[in-house]
Structure formats: structure tokens, C-alpha cells
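Many introductory courses stop at the sequence. We go one step further.
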Amino acid sequence: MSETEDSIVGIKDKELKMIRKILNRYEMKLVDIKKIRSIYKIKTENSTVCLKKVSHEFKKVENGNYLVRELKKNNFNNIADYISTKDGKLIVFYKNLAFYLTEWVDGEECNLNDINEAINASKLLAKFHLATQNINFHKIKLKNNNSKNWVEIFAKCLRDMESFKSIIQNKRIKNKFDFMYEDLIESYYNRGLFSIKILNESSYFKIIKGSNNKKTVCHNSFYYQNIIKGKKDYYIIDLNSIIIDLPITDLGKMIRRLMTKKEYMWNFEKAKQIIEAYNSVNKLSKDEMEVMLALIAFPHKFWKLGKKRYVRHKNWSENKYINKLNKIVLNNKCEQSFIEEYISYLDDIKEFTNFN
């Protein structure tokens, strides 16, 4: 394709000028370009690449580049290489902006609403976690979330709920949302206590201690737009959020997010398929799966909605607040059934390899 006006529809002249100058640093000639969300898909004479703007945290790009090289040494190739400029730089500056370049992964965004694709994504995540355990952590500076104490975090969230209740009770005039939210606080508060009870009675602190000797890199943004379904395999993109954490944090977030979708509706059998897909590649211990239940079961959405309303005073209409709350309540019975089935699953399951 020649570089014509038709090939750059939707790209402003200033953007085009900027991109050409950036590509000159790589000795690449622009053939075609398309903007997708915040990134540019660029076709050059010899390849297709991805150009992405980066904030002031340039270390994230260096971390991503290092991790990709280490992963490929460990035979994890489901990831895009970072591309350096002709003088070996990872980041290109244009005026007050900064950019970096990676390979373009051909494919489409993973449809996690399809259980079969979610299963494959879970296997990809397990493969990724497994490969990161063998990297040299002395050469990469990442936030270590293993130092987080979920018991303390959850306890703080419950104190927030108590504060929300106090705020509502002290209001001279209450509206419909206030009455609805107040009536639900006790139920969700008790579910939060349940999560804390699991953590306190499980091997959570032992797992945390062990994880400092056997570190894992978590993607920390394992969403559909960062999982690409190629012709033959699945790929992970965008490593700007990577942290050191427990593998069950990545997996638990994925499951919790999916369970709220209408295609899942807290169907434990589907969650079980995702868990067992992960275990087929990177086996979790029964203790780890128990801790993951605490992370999934905690009423994050209810707490977050209360914080938006009573602390941040987010400027939403009353109807929007009520609709958000109704959506949370709609799933309440399904969530409770999910928790009960998960507990039965843990009771019946054969013990996987113990956490060392």
C-alpha cells in the first residue's frame, strides 16, 4: 500500500508529522497507520509495529523490555518484542511527549465472555506466571505487592463501611440511594468479615512468606484488550502494570471480573473450568485456592460504590447510583451460591502440590 491520504484517514497532520519523525529514529518508513484507543498500529515497508505513548514512568518500559527478554529465554514466546532505535534507545522523545515501539501482534482482542476463550486465556496466564518465576529479579525493579496485608486492607474497607453508615445516619435528609445502601451494609459487611476469617484461618501468611523466596511477576492488567487471540495461539500485551505478587491475585481478579458479566452470573462451574485450566499448566495448592476465595468473595464493588458516593462525592445522577447498586444487589444470591459451591469444591478436591 502506498502512503496516500486514504491510508491515514483519521490521523491529524500534526500527529502524522510527529509519527514520521519518531519513525526516522528507527529508520522506518511509514506506509499505513491506524489509531486504536491510545496506540498506533503502524505498517512500515518491512513490518507492522505498535507505537505507544508513555508517561513519566519510563522505568516501566525498561522493565517490560527486560521481562520480555527473560521470558523468551524461558521459552515463553506469547509476547511482543520491544524495538530499540538505531542508536539503541527504548524511548523516543518528541517535544514534551515520550513513546516506545513494540512488535504488532496480529489477531483480535480475546472475547472473555466466551468460556472457551477464557479457558485459553487462563492457561496463557498460568504459562506467563510460571515463566516469570525463573527470571533474575535483581535486574528488574518492580513494586512488590507481597508485602501487602489483605487482612488489614479488608479491615480498612470494613471500617469505611461503618463510616458510610454513620454518614447516612447523620444526614438530615436521606434519599432513596441512602436508604437502599444503608439496608445492605450489614449483609456485605458480614461477607467482608467472612473473607477476613478465611485469610486468618488459612495458610495465607505462610503463602506470603514463601512467595518472597519464590517470586512471581503478575500482569496486573489481565483484561480482554491485553489478551490477543492469534491464528494459532494467545498472546499477552502491555506490560506497563507488572508487579511482583501472588499468582492467585491475577487469576482471582480475572475470575471476579468475569463472574459479574451476564454470560457468567457467578456460575461456579464456569469459574471451576477457568481454575482447572490454570491448574493444568501451573498447579495451585489447595491453600492458595482457599485464599483466592477470600479475594473473590470480598464485596469490592459494594465498598467502592460507597466510597464514590460518601467520600469522593462522584458527580453521578441519582439514577446512575441506584442502577449501579441494583446491579450489585441483583448478583447477591448468585454470589452466595458461588461461595457455597466454591467451599464444597475445596472440601472435595484432592490436594494439589503443596506450596513450598
